[in-house]
Amino acid sequence: MTLMPNEFRRHNRRGFLGLIGAGLALVAQPAWALDTDEARALIEKSLNEVYTVINSGQPPAQMFKAFEAIFARYADVDIIARSALGPAARQAGAAGFAAYKQAFQGYIGRKYGKRFREFIGSEIEVTGARPVKSFYAVTSVAYLKGRSPMEVEWHVSDKSGQSRYFNIIIEGVNMLASERAEIGAMLARRKGDIAALTADLQQAG
Amino acid sequence: MIARYHLIAFFAAALAGGCSADRDGDGIHDPYEPMNRKVHAFNRAVDSRVVKPLSSGVSGKDGKGIGSHVVEAAGNFGSNLALPGTAVNHLLQGKPAPAVRTTFRFLVNSTLGFAGLLDPAGKDFALPEEDTDFGQTLAAWGVGEGAYLELPLIGPSTERDAVGRVVDLVIDPMRGWLNRDQYLIGMGARAASKAGERGRFSDSVDSILYESADSYAQTRLIWLQHRRHELGEEGENIDPYAE
What we know:
By secondary structure, chain A is α+β, with helices and mostly antiparallel strands. Chain A has helices spanning 5-28, 36-54, 60-74, 77-85, 88-91, 94-113, 175-189, 194-203; strands at 123-132, 135-143, 150-157, 164-170, 173-174. In chain A, strand 4 (164-170) and strand 5 form a beta hairpin.
């Protein structure tokens, strides 16, 4: 059986276009590509771990350590700490920033962990996920006892090379914005001294 | 009644002219900051000396005990009396459906709910509270938010919401239906329920008011973000990777 020249050409062209298409798909979706299902799964998994700690009945100090570990595992602590510090992050040396980041992580674990009582007997239901510009927003509803349901939105990105959340928005209140204001005020109190801020953060929260 | 609505039209016109100032880069417009900070210091002192001790006595930290039931009933009673005013605002925003639901909620809770002490409308009739106020009505009419304000005893607000609060008092139908003592009891119940809430969420309130490096700035930011969310005015998303 011989191949007609015309048919051959069409075959070839389709193959070529197919290759281009595959190449484009590769460029658009790197190996660790994040999608709505994955973003959603990340938040569900981290919430399950948080509730396991809340319901464990451990002493608060141990809970805060456990919350900090969960935060370090599922959040992009580097970008959150960097963004909270603002332009000063660029002036900090590598060692100075690393120490600040470590202190910041502990501060977050204590500060937000302290509110665990409000979440005893509560439930958070993940309701959806959608792409927003360059990241994903995972929406959830928190049902707290004796309070109308609260909307909680998680922003998830894989820009760090791993899928991590970098912001939580509770009924419009943006954690990143509020930490920028707070860390900014703490840094101003220390007249821009990052080492002094780091020492303060180790006590704060 | 007609005089009242003239008053509203006057306020709205005054606001539309007066509240057009732009927000600063960070989305906060606070030209009265020095005065607001003084009021904030006053409010914080009142909270630490009066409200906080009172509220922690009334509702235990775990939200159990007889105190919290009394607070819940007082809160139900007070917010039931606010429903007619809420329904009026839904109407003024051109939303008849929530106005009707709010009216049914008021009728059910005032009768089956023993003058509003209980909340059968929310529990058994799927008529939850759909809160709104004249500040939101002004927003729906296109009036700008205006400058940030911290009001004595009341707390964070904006020029638009402060006017809204005054107008809400004026247009509240309950004022015509209750005598002065009954009306004051209703207001007292609402204040008591606010104190109860402060006790229940004491960890969050304490964190903002007493553990923050700049409690004024934190209060302002958190309150404005939450209020804008309530009014459907979402802020810009932060993308820290793009900075």
